[in-house]
Amino acid sequence: GIQVEQSPPDLILQEGANSTLRCNFSDSVNNLQWFHQNPWGQLINLFYIPSGTKQNGRLSATTVATERYSLLYISSSQTTDSGVYFCAGGGSGTYKYIFGTGTRLKVLA
Amino acid sequence: DAGVIQSPRHEVTEMGQEVTLRCKPISGHNSLFWYRQTMMRGLELLIYFNNNVPIDDSGMPEDRFSAKMPNASFSTLKIQPSEPRDSAVYFCASSLGGFGNSPLHFGNGTRLTVT
């Protein structure tokens, strides 16, 4: 099955800094999502982005499906951005989203 | 929309007891998923329903686990008998569409502790 690797595993930032999180897939995926798991454990949808680029406020994401990776950009980070960021993807005709192990982000005030 | 609703938020039970977790998907979504999250194994898919029919239960760990979806707006995950190693956060998610061509929306999860 598809393997999902996320990097870096841990990240500590000062408030206001920018960061890039990466997600690599072992095989092509037709569906890709980014989630933020906040300190209360909630899994929040950030982007559904099988390909291309999307932006939502300070966050943006780019997926290059042909090269099997996706990037999540966080600009001007805030303490509320802390938590774990997961990417998940699935292959063509499959409902099985495979999750990466996440990037744990801590933003310091 | 109210989003995916799970209950209870927390459940503490003793080993050997039956546990029932509940989920109400987003109205109109025809796919429902149960996931389990642990530190050791991350997020694992337990079972997937499409149009109320179980399509894939290969992730269900043992016969002690069972899931039902009697109608489009309700699903249960039951563990009987429960064991300490079942302690985890159980998430329900729903999506519109059957083959991963639409985003997953997660509920807030049920944190299960089995003592």
What features would you describe in this structure?
The complex is a heterodimer of chains A (109) and B (115). Chain A is mostly beta strands and 109 residues long. Chain A contains no helices and 11 strands. In chain A, 0% of the residues lie in helices and 57% in strands. In chain A, a hairpin with a 4-residue loop joins strand 7 and strand 8 (69-74). The model of chain A has no long low-confidence stretch (mean pLDDT 93). Classes of the chains: A mainly beta (109), B mainly beta (115). The A-B interface holds A 30-31, 33, 35, 41-43, 45, 48, 86, 88, 90-91, 93-97, 99, 101-102 and B 31, 33, 42-43, 45, 48, 50, 55-56, 89, 91, 98-106, 108-109, 111.
Write the layout of secondary structure elements.
The complex is a heterodimer of chains A (about 110) and B (about 120).
Chain A: E1 4-7, E2 10-14, E3 19-25, E4 31-37, E5 43-48, E6 52-56, E7 59-64, E8 69-74, E9 83-90, E10 98-99, E11 103-108
Chain B: E1 5-7, E2 10-13, E3 19-24, E4 31-38, E5 42-50, E6 53-56, E7 65-71, E8 74-79, E9 88-95, E10 105-106, E11 110-114
Parallel strand pairs in B: 2-11
Antiparallel strand pairs in B: 1-3, 3-8, 4-5, 4-9, 5-6, 7-8, 9-10, 9-11
Which key terms come to mind for this protein?
heterodimer; A: 109 residues; mainly beta; 6-stranded mixed β-sheet; 5-stranded antiparallel β-sheet; 11 strands; B: 115 residues; 7-stranded mixed β-sheet; 4-stranded antiparallel β-sheet; 0% helix
Please give a quick description of this structure.
The complex is a heterodimer of chains A (109) and B (115). Chain A is 0% helix and 57% strand.
User: What average pLDDT do the residues of chain B reach?
Assistant: 94
Query: What would you call the shape of chain A?
Result: globular
Structural category of chain A is mainly beta
Give the overall silhouette of chain B.
Answer: globular
Percent of residues in helices of chain A comes to under 10%
Helix tally of chain A?
Answer: 0
Largest interface: A-B, 21 and 23 residues
What is the count of helical runs of chain B? 0
Low-confidence stretches of chain B: none
Mean pLDDT of chain A: 93
Seen as an oligomer or otherwise, the chain set is heterodimer
What amount of the residues of chain B lies in strands? over 45%
How many beta strands in the DSSP annotation of chain B?
A: 11
The major sheet of chain B is characterized as: 7 strands, mixed
In N-to-C order, the SSE pattern of chain B is EEEEEEEEEEE
